[in-house]
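Pilot study result, target chain (129 residues):
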Amino acid sequence: MVAGYPTGSLVELASAADINLVPIAGAGAEALAEKYGFFSLSPIPAGTYEGVAETMTVAVGAQWYTSAKADDELIYHITKALWNDETRKLLDIGHAKGKTITIETALSGVGVPLHAGAERFYKEIGLLK
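Predicted structure:
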């Protein structure tokens, strides 16, 4: 299975039976992350699934996409809204991975050109020059 943690079906399975996660680690994982910048090495924390120790894997970050034809001002304001204090609260109390979505890593692993509106926002806050 390829999914973000905690995955409901695996939580349920681990509560009913002993499970093992297959790690994706070592030289192969490192080469993958180096070659394809949208992959990163990431642990699944111990206890995410009942009885399962920390397990190394590769991950991809969440990315928001829009049409290049979308209005620059609209995309600027949507991007700005994604990084306000109220959105931060929702990310922190939502999905377990929400806390890992931060402005500091917002541009890590971006695999496509930024929309002009988003680029304007990231320049304003100093993430882009």
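One observation from the pilot: The longest strand covers residues 39-44. A full batch analysis is planned for the follow-on phase.
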